[in-house]
């Protein structure tokens, strides 16, 4: 385990994009929560960051707002394109799996799940 004072706190560009140094956490991961207006303390805890790391990330986002926002929009666009691609590619397989009967011995659990879903839909 590294001592928090030894950790790097800058923002670096890797093959994954803008990343908090010493982590695999991208600025785009942080942006999801910044745009949803989560407090920095929550984001820090969620990603297990030091105070210096979260401050570095938030400062970088603020100082390079246009660049970060443009890259963030590109990341969101690519993620949506991938989601649509794999949704289409796996459509037949997902339908086939959904049509399969439950495994032997799990019928009661499936019935309980169906009842819970029906109850939730009635409340909504």
From TrEMBL:
Pfam families: DUF433. SUPFAM superfamilies: Homeodomain-like. This is DUF433 domain-containing protein.
């Amino acid at each position: 385990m590294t001592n928090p004072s030894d950790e790097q706190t800058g923002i670096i560009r890797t093959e994954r994009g803008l990343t908090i140094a010493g982590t695999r956490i991208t600025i785009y991961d942080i942006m999801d929560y910044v745009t949803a207006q989560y407090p920095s303390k929550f984001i820090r805890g969620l990603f297990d960051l030091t105070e210096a790391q979260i401050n570095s990330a938030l400062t970088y986002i603020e100082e390079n707002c246009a660049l970060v926002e443009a890259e963030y929009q590109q990341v969101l666009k690519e993620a949506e394109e991938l989601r649509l691609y794999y949704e289409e590619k796996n459509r037949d397989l997902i339908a086939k799996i959904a049509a399969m009967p439950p495994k032997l011995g799990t019928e009661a659990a499936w019935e309980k799940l169906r009842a819970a879903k029906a109850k939730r839909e009635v409340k909504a």
